Amino acid sequence: MVTLRSHTRERARRRSSWAFLPQEIRRMILEEISRQNRWSRASTCRNYSHLFDPSTLTKDALQSLTKALAAWEPTHHITLELNAYSPGDPNHCFKNHLYGFEHENHENLLEKQEAWNDPDHGWFEGKQKEPPKTSAIQQLFITAITEVGSASPPKVPAVKGVVIRRQMRRKIDRSALSKLLKQFPNLESITYEPWRVLLHLPNENDLSCGKQDQMLLVGLPTWPQHVRSVTIFEDFNEQMMEAIRSNPVPTFGNESFQVETRRRTNYRMGEAFAVKSHNLEHLSVSFMIDARDFFTSCKMLGDWPRLRSLILTTPLMTKGSRQSISDLLVNAGQVAQKMQHLKSLAIWHCSHDKASAVIFHKNEKGGRKVQGSATLTWRGTCGFDFSKEVVGTWQKVVCTCNSHPGYVGQCDSHQFLCKIERVEGEIISHGDAIHHLRLPNGVIDPRSLRQIRQEGILQREAWTVGAEPVDESESEEEP
Question: DUF6546 domain spans which residues (predicted)?
Answer without folding.
Answer: 224-445
